[in-house]
Amino acid sequence: MIGRGMDHSAENLARQGEDRERGRELAAGVLAGERRSLARAITLVESARAEDRVAASALLDAVAGVGDSLRIGLTGPPGVGKSTFVEAFGRHIVGQGKRLAVLAVDPSSARTGGSILGDKTRMELLVREPNAFIRPSPSGAALGGVARRTAESLRLCEAAGFDVVIVETVGVGQSETMVADLTDIFTLLIPPAGGDELQGVKRGVMEMADILLINKADGALADTARATAADYAGALHLLRRRPGDPDGAPSAAAVSAATGAGVAEAWERIVAIDAWRRAEGWRDRRRADQAARRLRIEIEARLWERFASDPAAQAQLAALDGEVRRGALEPAAAAELIVRGGGD
Amino acid sequence: MIGRGMDHSAENLARQGEDRERGRELAAGVLAGERRSLARAITLVESARAEDRVAASALLDAVAGVGDSLRIGLTGPPGVGKSTFVEAFGRHIVGQGKRLAVLAVDPSSARTGGSILGDKTRMELLVREPNAFIRPSPSGAALGGVARRTAESLRLCEAAGFDVVIVETVGVGQSETMVADLTDIFTLLIPPAGGDELQGVKRGVMEMADILLINKADGALADTARATAADYAGALHLLRRRPGDPDGAPSAAAVSAATGAGVAEAWERIVAIDAWRRAEGWRDRRRADQAARRLRIEIEARLWERFASDPAAQAQLAALDGEVRRGALEPAAAAELIVRGGGD
């Protein structure tokens, strides 16, 4: 079989040993809570270089099972004021004596190649807090890759002793699903709007939310935001009755990143849900399901890598690709020929 | 290697020959434009039974490259009036002397297991048209599976001589991406709303749309719908400048499924875009890219099937699954052990 045992030379084995040692050393720094080690460790797991993969694997093995953070997912549509909210929310959390890490995920679309999130230094005040660690994710990778790397970065923050990790992203494409699948509590930030626009919110995203926060509850929009929160709260109770919620439905509340109104209450609500879920076993069940799904994704990725490094399969693929593109051969039929024909 | 050459008995080979013959016979009926054959052929490609896969494969091979339909994708949020619009739009197309197939895709979420689209018999008038063929997709499958089967059903409609195939689905989760990736022209149906709610539309979906239609341009909402169309038209021209559009940006127009206002114009616009894209080579390029992506998906599916039918790998998976769920072993590390350890 291809892609394995390809280079068992003494030189290569020695190099792999050094890479593993590099990973373990970094793990020691992470476990000691050193910020520089954590930053370097995240850079390592984000790296696509083969030798870094060996080191990253040793690093992650060395921190397996260590740490116990509350993992909060936060998304919202562009323009809802997410960065400002994370700044206010994060400062409140740090003010409670908690150590906070923020992973800002940028689901740069493969289509545009561009960055959606823009400049992360907008969190000017939070950045200066000694107990806060803010990390933007690398752009350019496909969403699947971002999800895998973010899961590992989250594990590293946890191992470094952070009490709370916020995974934050703009709500586009599948990014909400990704964030919900990485975290314990999924928070959806939405703008104030009349109740009759409820339909416009993607139902799939509503289904995932544990908490809805209606931002911009200040100035001229304060009343609208409160009315929107009331509308959503009512709708959520009507729409859903699900296990895993202390009240049988997610909550909705108005907040203002600008004035800080509702921020403390949002945090208290999250803490209360988490405490209840831990006690009832829901948190562990959710994490177990997430881990099982990630295992499948990791296996699929490795099966593809093995396929991609198989010269016979690649030759078959190259031979049939043109016919498939022209429409002369169905993709399924070509795949059948390629997978049956190559690989060993 | 596992999963192949497992049963080369004479009996099994004879059975496979019969299955292939069954597929080829059905193909003859499809190519003759027989509706019953088409319906049975779609049922065959939707089947998950192993013997049906052999027959389906022969069927698809036999119709490869036949047909030349205009493939239109149509999605919109729940409640926008999609079925009513497809009925009005479809009757207009049939009225132009075209043969029309409608594939109504139901992206039943793995989460809820339920059907979102509901009763397809709502298209009461279109259903009675002799030149229209309406087919709801099976519910219950995962989105990836629905996409694969819908692509094949679409090919069958095309081979049966339909001039136009509409792939219609409610806009939830990733279903829009799926529909856009199956069709030549992606149409997004949205409700009337003030221009300042533009932000609420998922940017990723806007990026995909070739045409935006603002529905319900009748009665009390007529003016709002027209204003919304004007807002979007302006925004789209500001936001985008892309190749593959005759005017460098998608268009936006108000329509009414109830009165039929704007329906003829929407059809003319689609025909004009398609004619321009064919002439400029954009249609073939888009289809080639779609086929290449589908090839990758089909290969990935077969790699997974091969893995899932490998007893050694499955034993490894079973042994490590519990550790992964408990958080004692990282999914990536477990995947490494499983893929390196099993498979041959």
- What's the CATH H-level superfamily name of the largest domain in chain A? P-loop containing nucleotide triphosphate hydrolases
In spatial order, strands of the major sheet of chain A run 3-2-4-1-5-6-7
Number of E-state strands of chain A: 7
Question: Architecture of the largest domain in chain A in CATH?
Answer: 3-Layer(aba) Sandwich
What would CATH call the class of the largest domain in chain A?
Answer: Alpha Beta
In total, how many domains does the architecture of chain A comprise? 3
Helix content of chain A: 40-55%
Please tell me what the overall shape of chain A is.
globular
CATH topology of the largest domain in chain A: Rossmann fold
Question: If you average the pLDDT of chain A, what whole number results?
Answer: 84
**Which blocks of ≥5 consecutive residues of chain A have pLDDT under 50?**
1-5, 109-121, 194-200
Radius of gyration of chain A: 23 Å
Which protein chains make the most extensive interface, counting residues with beta carbons within 8 Å of the other chain's beta carbons? A-B, 72 and 72 residues
Assembly of the depicted chains = homodimer
Compressed to H and E, one letter per element, the order of chain A equals HHHEHEHEHEHEHEHEHHHH
